[in-house]
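Quick start: load a record and inspect it. Here is Angiotensin-converting enzyme:
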Amino acid sequence: MTEALRFLVIALVLVGVRCASVDVDSKNKGKAKQTSKVHNEEEAVEFYNNFDKQFKFYCKRNSLAMWNYDTNITDFNLQRKLEATAAFAQFRKDSWKELMKYPWKDFSDPELKRKFQLSSVLGNAALSDHDFKRLDAIIIAMKTTYSKAKICSFQDSTKCDLSLEPELTELLKVSRDPEELRHIWIEWHRNSGEKVKEQYKEYVALSNKAAKMNHFDNAADLWLSSYESDEFRDQIFELLNQLKPLYQQLHAYVRRHLRLKYGKEVVKAKGPIPAHLLGNMWAQTWGNIADFMLPYPERQSADVTSNMIKQGYTPVKMFKLSEEFFVSLNLSAMPAMFWEKSILEKPKDGRDIVCHATAWDFCDSMDFRIKQCTVVNQRHLNTAHHEMGHVQYYLQYKHQPSIFRKGANKGFHEAVGDVLALSVSTPKHMRAIGLLQEQVSAADKEAEREETINYLFSIALEKIAFLPSAYQMDLWRWDVFEGKTTPENYNCHWWKLAEQFQGIEPPVDRSEEDFDVASKYHVVANVPFIRYFVSFVIQFQFHKALCQAAGQLKNNAPLHECDIYKSAEAGNLLRSMLQLGSSKPWPEAMEILTGQRNMDITALREYFAPLEDWLRAENKRTGEFIGWEKSDKMYNEEEAVKFYNNFEKQFKFYCKRNSLARWNYDANITDFNLQRKLEATAAYAKFKKDSWKELIKYQWKDFSDPELKRKFKLSSVLGSAALSDKDFKRLDAIIIAMKTTYSKAKICSFQNSTKCDLSLDPELTELLKVSRDPEELRHIWIEWRRNSGEKVKEQFKEYVALSNKAAKMNHFDNAAALWLNNYESDEFRNQINELVHQLKPLYQQLHAYVRRHLRIKYGDGVVKAKGPIPAHLLGNMWAQAWGNIADFMLPYPERQSADVTSNMIEQGYTPLQMFKLSEEFFVSLNLSAMPEMFWKKSILEKPKDGRDMVCHASAWDFCDSTDFRIRQCTVINQRDLNTVHHEMGHVQYFLQYRNQPIVFQHGANGGFHEAVGDVLALSVSTPKHLRAIGLLQEPASAADKKAEREAMINYLFSMALEKIAYLPFAYQMDLWRWDVFEGKTTPENYNCHWWRLAEKLQGIEPPVDRSEEDFDIASKYHIVADVPYIRYFVSFIIQFQFHKALCQSAGQLDNNAPLHECDIYKSTAAGNLLGSMLQLGSSKPWPDAMGVITGQRNMDASALREYFAPLEDWLRAENERTGEFIGWEKSDKLCLRTREELSKGAITTK
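Running the structure step on this input writes:
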């Protein structure tokens, strides 16, 4: 990349503008208040024109100081550079303070709007003067170390003046002594990268600090912002995957010839390639070793270096040749000043100079230069065209305003020079300029084909070999900036990526005292590298488009033979794109040249297709291994078995001690119990961390025993225990504090404001069920949130940061990825989203029907005919289940309701009786009764001794295969009867898999555990079962078909209020957290984003306007308790799959009997089938467990749709009859940053 361009781009990007009182993450479309004078568009034009003039002055002065330093590294020039850089930064910062006053998003002039958009980030200049100067000084110091680095000769240890350019680069090209190459590689890395590691740590910290001051999470996000796409990283990774087959074929072929050259002791047949043998200091291009591995060595090589030397080429002649190529395309010649002031070869006066080739724009539309320590060879001839391509780009857009004087994206600038080199490097062009002999006889087709393969092979060693390296260079830095890779793992992570993507390895063992990545200029010089990857893809798109314009592809002429030399048509087309600079988004620039708006690999694959076919056939012929294996194992499998058995014994001890301490605290919230819990949790975490450090030393992926392999796989993620002791204790303390706030939260009665002891369970839950006073419900809704969620927002921010930190230390991008790892599928989120989409028609019909009855109940003034449903009216604190409001909206109110709460109360049910009834159901299926200890130690109703406790129902496994408990503040109602069966289902699962190794004592996935209890509840809640146990009367006369059908619709409706209403909420709970963990939703938008999702997915709205001072989602236990929620969604899908399979086993679906009437009570066949799945625990991947019980391996909504089909048909007909609007329009409720804004009627962010 060009040095001057880099600083120009940075400088321009650094000039930021922010509308002072507008939330930049909002979707405001109205006019917001300004904290100072609001400038109009006419004033903005005048200001920007004046700014542009001043910018050119400071930019030129800074560029000149940079040039003087880079071309003569002295303390004096360094001081002048620092002074100029500081002055430039101060100008940018002062200008930004003015720029930020302009509301550019509302500008009508699209060009002016884009100027301000591209200037809307201040970048490094956002730092304090002290920090900015420090960051600049660090970068200069690292570059100085790099530029001054010299090593001693392998041949003469007293000669210690070998620089990278040109001496070491030349030696790496010509030497074939593996020991000399090893010496050069080691010594260069020792004298360059190793020396800057401490500086680099500070560079990372300051770069991230600058990014955060620009409202980015880290410097990686800041770097990537110029590509204007949230999908950019995914697109790059996908392009790399598409290139992988070609790269692996090239890699295999090269490895074979290196092995033939240096022996199998140096180059393993199936291993990565040693990096020092590839002819380049960083193994990024391999063209220097083509001489001994050309596919057809008897054919003339496409490398014309020897001919250039014979013909007396000089650096100036090489650049003049390049200029002539551009002129032949009707593009611009270099101005006279270019030839006067460029440095085209390394000065011989002994000065230190930054030799890395760069093109410079001095910001005045006149002065353009190149700095290159040119060597007379074909590689530098291509580099000359590349750098002159940058200058040509400068010349073409020099008329643009300063802000648009850059490439459409950073890859464009890199591609322009290279696209010319694709023509220049063809044998056809080399012959045209006299650097290759005339072509062989046209009749010699075989010779011509062989020459083509040689040519493509030489190009591939430069282009294809480069692509993984280009990706890896920035992937490493993204990981560093994002905190996934810490200084303790800088070097090892670099080599892990090098092995993964390039298939290379260091020539000697490395340690974290080395810092090999910093032996590369772009790393120490703060130059992003992904632009080169982009360039290497899009240059082939450009090339194909220009070749078509030049008429070079007629009659199916091959793309790799095209030379656009002397084609004014191609030059005119290229100019039309170059002149745009960045005045248009890059897809528009791409489209002007290529007709395409996206990066596309098709042209590259077309270009190299003949070579890829040849490589595949050649590697097959020689039996070469494709790909590469990992290094040798560290520990053998027999030792792993011994280690794991010992680990398991200790694990049970620490796990039980921790579980007991947690139980004691949750059952009696006191400071004493809190302290014991913290101590036990810390000890458990330390044990897991110590064990994990040993466990990960085993190469478990290569184990032959599948059970042992799975044990290690499931144990390879440490979770939050990977944190430092301090961070782990802090995270645990935060979760405990949030749970304590939740558990102790109480509100005052609506009826009696002096009675302020109402807890969520049982008082508020009961009031939400029975009250039909909308004002009381509104009071409860508001006050609960004010006394629970609102109080923990600051703690939650820290919880998010620590959770993400833990995830990164487990090699996940964020905590969302860590949570989802349990489901063992990269497609899991897409599958869940698809299931939500499939369920949407049923949910919308239910929503419409419920909204109508709420409107009838409370009036149009409370519930709008087409709007979302007010959340406080749905009978549940979180609007997640709507069963409590069934009483006034049953489809057939004259038919008996399926809710048997009143009958339970009349029959004197107790919490204990409810649990005994559940136990009897399991026993009837030939499953296990509860052990005696369960009845002794469980807490089945809220203690009346006044203690504070966590009432949320939960089942507990104390890790010893004997102690299992439930804690539940049970209320006598049907909902809690279902909850009893749900929690007993968890315990049944514990009992069934308790003989498994401890790591397999889990559900097959998180949703399985939740589904097991619920699948029993599907039977328990049927009218058939409730009649069997005496909680419902016998059915009406069998002849009364209509009454039977109406009772059935009532039953399904009641079930749907619990199941179907719940599904969007269950998805939304974790979707919000995934967004938070991934940084898509920031603390400034926590609450409003929650309500956007609630409106979109649930079709609900808050009863009152909300602000970011509220924190409504944290009024839910699972949020403050760090409990993932998607398991419940999974459960609500797969429980119907389980139910159908068990019903079939029980013979309940014979003769097309409806699924919703099935009751598996007393079916041992069903129980045995269920038990066969439960006993597996997590010893098999969940699709295997699913297959055992259902015969299916995927989640499937068809059983759920079958279960509710009669209700869905009825709802659709009923809603059509009443003309009910299906779906919902946007809510008119506001969600703003502050309550003060709400009180002033500020504009909504929704």
